[in-house]
């Protein structure tokens, strides 16, 4: 499948049309942003890692009953995916307090929750992706009640599957952001990406951060953290 024309360029990815109206090609860049685009930079090799990792995780989820947009990895940075209409909600699931949760409620990072939390942000850069509740999302017609229920089920199922998957690889899944899309038949699938850009990962032994927080907070060794996460996901940690 070939790229025909550029449809959209986002912060970390480009999206191209293909000859098939039902598919698009996503191309992962090394560009990184944080704090609603205020902090800009580049993480060398990130696009290659995020492309591979996201595809491995989506394939695992698909196998376990979570429908995704994934069709086929085309190259180091390019993946063929089903064309979707993105539901403009960032779906955030948390297992441990961190980031904006810790800040908003004035608590430390690292509180382990008895049950995962679930929240939406309204995907709107001009407004800075504000927190939004279900009734507001319905009022704004961002999704239907049925779609929201489906998204919630799929997000919580994804959390359980990812938590177990990473735990087997010595990684704590702290929190993550998902995006869902509608296929042409209206059904909901997991879209966008799952990577160290969109998840918080802590090493289970040392609690070292292995994700984009290293970039956000200028902690150094950003590239190494992405490489280490890729190594864990590839299962290479057991090879001598
Ligand atoms: N996240 C993301 N994109 C965003 C906002 C958050 O991928 O625009 C991810 C982030 O990496 C983390 C989770 O969602 O894994 C929860 O982020 P939080 O709400 O704590 O916001 P942040 O501190 O990242 O601004």
Description:
The chain is of the alpha+beta class and about 240 residues long. The protein is built from six helices and 14 strands. The strands form three sheets. Strands 8, 9, 10, 11, 12, 13 and 14 form a seven-stranded antiparallel β-sheet that branches. Helix 1 runs parallel beside helix 6 (about 220-235). The structure holds uridine-5'-diphosphate. The site of uridine-5'-diphosphate (UDP) has 14 residues, from strand 9, helix 2, strand 12 and strand 14.
Task: Show the helix and strand layout.
Blueprint: E1 6-9, E2 13-17, E3 23-28, E4 31-34, E5 39-42, H1 46-63, E6 70-73, E7 78-82, E8 85-86, E9 89-96, H2 99-105, E10 112-122, E11 131-132, H3 134-139, H4 145-167, E12 171-182, E13 188-191, E14 199-203, H5 213-216, H6 222-233
Antiparallel strand pairs: 1-2, 2-3, 3-7, 4-5, 6-7, 8-12, 9-10, 9-12, 10-11, 12-13, 12-14
Helix pairs in contact: 1-6
The site of uridine-5'-diphosphate has 14 residues, from β9, α2, β12 and β14.
Short account of what is shown:
It comes from Candidatus Pullichristensenella excrementigallinarum. By secondary structure, the protein is α+β, with helices and mostly antiparallel strands.
Index terms:
240 residues; alpha+beta; 7-stranded antiparallel sheet; 5-stranded antiparallel sheet; 14 strands; globular; binds uridine-5'-diphosphate
Hetero compounds: uridine-5'-diphosphate
Give a quick account of the main beta sheet: strands, pairing sense, barrel closure.
7 strands, antiparallel
**N/C terminus separation:** 38 Å
Question: What is the overall number of helices?
Answer: 6
């Amino acid at each position: 499948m070939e790229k025909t024309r550029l449809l959209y360029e986002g912060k970390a990815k480009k999206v191209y049309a293909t000859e098939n109206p039902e598919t698009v090609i996503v191309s992962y860049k090394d560009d990184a942003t944080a704090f609603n685009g205020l902090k800009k930079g580049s993480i060398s090799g990130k696009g290659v890692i995020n492309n591979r990792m996201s595809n491995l995780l989506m394939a695992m989820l698909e196998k376990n009953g979570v429908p995704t947009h994934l069709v086929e990895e085309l190259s180091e940075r390019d993946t063929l995916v089903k064309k979707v209409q993105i539901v403009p909600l960032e779906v955030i699931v948390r297992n441990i307090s961190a980031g904006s949760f810790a800040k908003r409620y004035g608590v430390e990072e690292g509180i382990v929750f008895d049950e995962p939390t679930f929240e939406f942000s309204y995907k709107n850069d001009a407004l800075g992706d504000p927190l939004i509740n279900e009734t507001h999302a319905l009022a704004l017609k961002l999704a239907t009640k049925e779609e929201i229920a489906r998204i919630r089920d799929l997000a919580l199922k994804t959390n359980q599957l990812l938590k177990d998957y990473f735990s087997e690889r010595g990684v704590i899944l702290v929190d993550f952001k998902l995006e869902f899309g509608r296929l042409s038949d209206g059904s909901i699938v997991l879209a966008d990406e799952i990577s160290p850009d969109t998840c918080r990962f802590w090493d289970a032994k040392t609690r070292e951060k292995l994700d984009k927080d290293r970039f956000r907070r200028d902690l150094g060794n950003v590239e190494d953290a992405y490489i280490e996460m890729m190594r864990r996901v590839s299962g290479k940690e057991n090879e001598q």
